[in-house]
Write a structure and sequence with these properties.
- With 243 residues, the chain is α/β, with parallel strands linked by helices.
- The protein folds into two domains: 110 residues, 3-Layer(bba) Sandwich (FAD/NAD(P)-binding domain), CATH 3.50.50.60; 94 residues, 2-Layer Sandwich (D-Amino Acid Oxidase, Chain A, domain 2), CATH 3.30.9.10.
- The chain is built from six helices and 13 strands.
- Strand 1, helix 1 and strand 2 form a beta-alpha-beta unit.
- Helix 1 runs parallel beside helix 5.
- The chain is elongated and about 65 Å long.
Length: 243
């Protein structure tokens, strides 16, 4: 249940607790025994219906070129699996006919994946079509296949609920909805409080987990946050039953 009294101080304030990043921070703070964590959320609900998590594809792909990203993705996937939030379906990255630079990139990506512990491999166009029949086999050279890729189910927003409630049950977290951070109280280049329309919360530890609004929060604290939003298409396919 959300706190009925406005807190005057906190050991840690999370700005944006209604998304996957903020909620998981709250979860792990609680697991580590941290108390008196306040989670601020500008949405009226948790999980938030405003941020990136509410619009995420929820697809977990395991392979990239750096070791850290491979490790963190594998760690996250195991967390979802262990808590009943993962459906392993496999994933494809395709290469169109004639796009030899893309094909070389997929080869390098397979090399990175094998070096860092994922199970990716290159497959032929016919194998790709067998895995995803809507593909036009004649238009692709082949694909990179990751058998361990899959989806967070039902949605990553459900993981947010799980993480927040778990932190609350441990007595670690209190949340405030309809409460965006409006600024920070700073003395001698150190944050000593978070401003909201309801009042100031005294704290010297703030975590900004506000996604696309991160640069705005950074400006309030005098800290530049490099972030560029990326637009991309997303299509969902499913079987249509006919009589």
């Amino acid at each position: 249940m959300e706190s009925s009294e406005f807190p005057k101080e906190a050991d840690i304030v999370i700005v944006g607790v209604g998304g996957i990043v903020g909620s998981m921070l709250a979860y792990w703070f609680a697991e580590l025994g941290q108390k008196n964590v306040i989670g601020l959320e500008k949405s009226s609900v948790i999980p938030s219906d405003l941020g990136s998590t509410a619009h995420a594809s929820d697809f977990v792909y395991n392979t990239t070129h750096d070791k850290l990203s491979n490790w963190t993705t594998a760690y996250s996937r195991k967390f979802y699996e262990d808590n009943g939030f993962f459906l392993k379906k496999g994933g494809l990255e395709i290469c169109r006919v004639g796009d030899y630079e893309r094909w070389e990139e997929l080869k390098r990506k397979v090399g990175s994946g094998k070096a860092f512990g994922t199970n990716v491999k290159l497959i032929s166009a016919s194998e790709a079509k067998e895995k995803f029949p809507l593909l036009d086999e004649d238009s692709i050279m082949g694909a990179m296949w990751d058998p361990d890729a899959g989806l967070v189910v039902p949605r990553s927003q459900d993981v947010v609920s799980f993480a927040v409630e778990s932190a609350k049950e441990k007595g670690s977290l209190k949340t405030l909805t309809n409460t965006p951070a409006t600024g920070f109280k700073i003395e001698k280049d150190r944050i000593i409080g978070v401003r909201t329309k309801k009042g100031i919360i005294k704290t010297n530890k703030v975590v900004v987990a506000s996604g696309i609004w991160g640069p705005l929060l950074g400006d309030m604290a005098g800290v530049p946050v490099p972030l560029s939003p990326l637009e991309h298409p997303l299509l969902f396919f499913w079987t249509i039953a006919t009589n």
